[in-house]
From TrEMBL:
Naturally occurring in which organism (per UniProt): Streptomyces bingchenggensis (strain BCW-1)
Pfam families xrefs: RmlD_sub_bind
Keywords per UniProt: NADP, Oxidoreductase
Family note: Belongs to the dTDP-4-dehydrorhamnose reductase family.
Known EC number: 1.1.1.133
An example Gene Ontology molecular-function term: dTDP-4-dehydrorhamnose reductase activity
Pathway(s) this gene product operates in, as recorded in its UniProt entry: Carbohydrate biosynthesis; dTDP-L-rhamnose biosynthesis
Enzyme category, top tier: oxidoreductase
The protein, known as: dTDP-4-dehydrorhamnose reductase
Function: Catalyzes the reduction of dTDP-6-deoxy-L-lyxo-4-hexulose to yield dTDP-L-rhamnose.
SUPFAM superfamilies linked: NAD(P)-binding Rossmann-fold domains
Residue span, RmlD-like substrate binding domain: 6-289
Length: 302
């Protein structure tokens, strides 16, 4: 059985929209959620690739909870590091390309020495938390096992209709609370999962066509914002007063995993392969909003 695309983690926030995007584009794709394929099982991974013989694999499977990773780094490493290596090894054996989803959290977030310069694709990784360290391990596995056919797609601050996320939470809290306190001292790039899925499709096609060299690509939205600014924009789109969102600090929330203060990603490499970067985050949020509202509709009484 030959499938052009194989997607791991297809039941997750990004994985769902990757599958939707591939099918809408007319691609043949096989998706595995975490129950269908445990990427930490090397034999199962090899069997899946042997059966489906994909031309390209998109790895959306991940331990994606930074706070939980602080207390279970070994568990996070099993999935984000060792699981990714299993996929890379199998892709090498069956001559498949691999696009591995990574994160802005692989960078230190020190705002490039105060200059607030986006991190380039080749900037040195230096994560500040356990989650970032385990994602770096996955990146290194891809680069080591697949020097010519391995791709790392770093994205950031994902939102979409498929699962709970910050934007959906803000939509719900606008109904429930008079005011919402939101972190204002962390800056990144809110990215709609459907925009990321479209960029993955373009990168995959370019990779298979020999037009995109292996390596790291930054699949985050254009522009930048703090969580506070993102929440204000959500309230504005809801027709609510953005002043109901109040700025706070990351320290005030006391979360176990430290977050990068500045993790904005640069997009220069897309232009070298003839692909436009993802649009501005505000445009993506506005396009996504109808589906986000529908996902957060209050349950109707029986």
């Amino acid at each position: 059985m030959n499938e052009a695309w194989l997607v791991t983690g297809s039941g997750g926030l990004l994985g769902q929209d990757v599958m939707t995007g591939l099918r809408e584009a007319g691609e043949t794709a096989k998706g595995f959620d975490h129950k269908g394929l445990d990427i930490t099982d090397a034999h199962a991974v090899r069997d899946a690739l042997a059966k489906h013989r994909p031309a390209i694999v998109i790895n959306c499977a991940a331990f994606a909870a930074p706070d939980k990773a602080e207390t279970d780094e070994e568990g996070a490493l099993r999935i984000n590091g060792e699981g990714t290596r299993n996929l890379a090894d199998a892709c090498a054996e069956f001559q498949a390309h691999l696009i591995h989803i990574s994160t802005d959290y692989v960078f230190s977030g020190d705002d490039s020495g105060g200059a607030a310069v986006p991190f380039a694709e080749d900037a040195p990784t230096c994560p500040v938390n356990a989650y970032g360290r385990t994602k770096v391990a996955g990146e290194r596995a891809v680069f080591a096992c697949l020097p010519r056919t391995g791709y790392v797609f770093r994205t950031a601050w994902l939102f979409g209709a498929g699962r709970a996320n910050f934007v959906r939470t803000m939509i719900r809290l606008e109904r429930e609370k008079d005011h919402v306190d939101v972190v204002a001292d962390q800056c990144g790039q809110p990215t709609w999962t459907m925009d990321a899925a479209g960029q993955l499709l373009r990168l995959g096609r370019a990779a298979l066509g020999g037009q995109a060299p292996a390596g790291a690509y930054h699949g985050s939205a254009g522009g930048q914002a703090s969580w506070y600014e993102l929440a204000q924009e959500v309230f504005r789109l809801l027709g609510a007063d953005p002043q109901r969102v109040r700025p706070s600090t990351g320290a005030a929330f006391g979360r176990p995993a430290p977050r990068p203060a500045y993790s904005v990603l640069g997009h220069a490499r897309w232009h070298t392969v003839g692909i436009e970067p993802i649009r501005h985050w505000r445009a993506g949020l506005e396009a996504a909003f109808p589906s986000l509202l529908k996902a957060e509709e209050p349950a109707q009484p029986i």
